[in-house]
Amino acid sequence: YIKSPKQWEVFLSPIRGEIAQALRCIGPCSASQLAQMVDRPADTLYRHIDQLKRAGFVIETGERKRGRHVERLFDVAADDFAMDFAEITRGEGRASVQKTARAFLGTVSKTVGDSLEAGALEMREAERNFVMNYELSRLTPERFKKARALMYQIKVLMDESRTRDEGALYCTLTVMCPVTRSRRRGGSARTKG
């Protein structure tokens, strides 16, 4: 659990988030192996790996000799990371939660765009490899807990598949939060009618 909004924000850079997720899949590994996974040059990753190390997301696990060179090996410091801010209604905690939503949504949007550009999305029902859903519904606390448990099952399925070197690489993003309407200027809050 990450208790500092400043520490958490290191993780929100798209490339650093991608590095941490890739390390969850293939770590411990070298920067060159990581570069292959994220499809970026290895020499551009070191600065980001160092920032993740300083913030406590990544650790150096050792070295390995490869030919005449010695490679450093990296891994994630924990299997999962989650925000655990004492205060999220104002200040840094609130800003960090909002930045997290933007960063994660932006990453998924870019991933979908890249897949579309590459012609990798299949929309025909029998071969469909793409799912997107938006729902708006009223939930009792009990039904919210049930929906949250179902979302957690998706996470468990993804975690179980993460270290297997088979199949295509997929990303998921699940978000569920209360819907509130802000007051309009000069008017009252929107109410159900």
Description:
This protein has 193 residues and is mainly α. The protein is built from 6 helices and 3 strands. It has helices spanning 5-10, 14-26, 31-38, 46-54, 91-117, 141-162; strands spanning 29-30, 58-66, 69-76. The longest helix has 27 residues, at 91-117. The radius of gyration is 20 Å and the shape is globular.
**Strands across the major sheet, in which order?**
1-3-2
Helix content: 40-55%
Compute the gyration radius: what is it? 20 Å
Give a short account of the largest sheet.
3 strands, antiparallel
Count of helical stretches: 6
Poorly predicted sequence stretches spanning 5 or more consecutive residues: none
Globular, elongated, flat, extended or rod-shaped: what is the shape? Answer: globular
The mean pLDDT is 87
Q: What portion of residues belong to β-strands? A: 5-15%
Distance between the termini: 41 Å
Number of strands: 3
Backbone structural class: mainly alpha
Order of helices and strands: HHEHHEEHH
Topology of helices and strands:
Elements: H1 5-10, H2 14-26, E1 29-30, H3 31-38, H4 46-54, E2 58-66, E3 69-76, H5 91-117, H6 141-162
Antiparallel strand pairs: 1-3, 2-3
